[in-house]
Amino acid sequence: MKNLKNKKVLITGGARGIGKQIAIEFAKHGSDIIICDLDKSYIEKNNFQDIEELGVSCFGYHLDVTNYNEIIKIRKKILNDVGAIDILINNAGVVFGGSFLDIPIEKHKITYDVNTQGIVNMLHVFLNDLIKQKESHIVNIASASGFTSLPNGTTYASSKAAVTSFSESLINELKQNNHHHVGMSIVCPAYVNTGMFDGVKEPLFIPMLRPEKLAKKIIKAVLKNKRFVLEPAFIKFIPIIKALSPNSFFDFLGRVLGGYSSMKFWKGHKK
User: Fold this and answer.
1) Does residue 115 contact residue 160 with C-beta atoms inside 8 Å?
2) pTM above 0.85?
């Protein structure tokens, strides 16, 4: 995608954190923003001044990405209010840290429903609109934890691994059907300083990411149709090390570098 000006960008989970920063960065490039978020109060307050001050339009819709029928209704509203979208950012996500057995099964289910099925739901509803555009792009927020083990974050890591596999499968299916004009970027960051990972201990060589930096990387990925965004830099080596190393050595690195123990210190979601 050569130019983001006047593109219509839908961002799930856009009220705060990574999603909010992504909205701001796209607005700086002249894109009109559509924020869909579970936070009804944020949407009702119409608190989009920081985005609209950048000279673009911003629309907000209350949306639960786990509710397929609700997504269908919101799509109709967006088509009526804004028109067909050009870029879909599947950013909505949740995390619950702790021992697997100590976390209630309902929270494990919510993790998969939001992080994985939510993306499937959104694309099942909006993909045809993206295909009909002359050029379009999909950004799915996965995680570096999808490449490795994350004790005390078992369902979070596995839900994000599923996002990566789903995304790669879908983009190749689109190419097989000659929809080469639809691009996709799979974003796999380590911990991002948004409050979702309050209390986690940063592993060696993997500092906490600033959402502003990650959002800028996402912009570049969309403009260059880059398949993967792996941040920070050390994350790029994890799949290679895992592929070339015995399991015992890879697990040893996970313990020594602190990746395997980082979620033991998860405190919850900082507001």
Assistant:
1) yes
2) yes
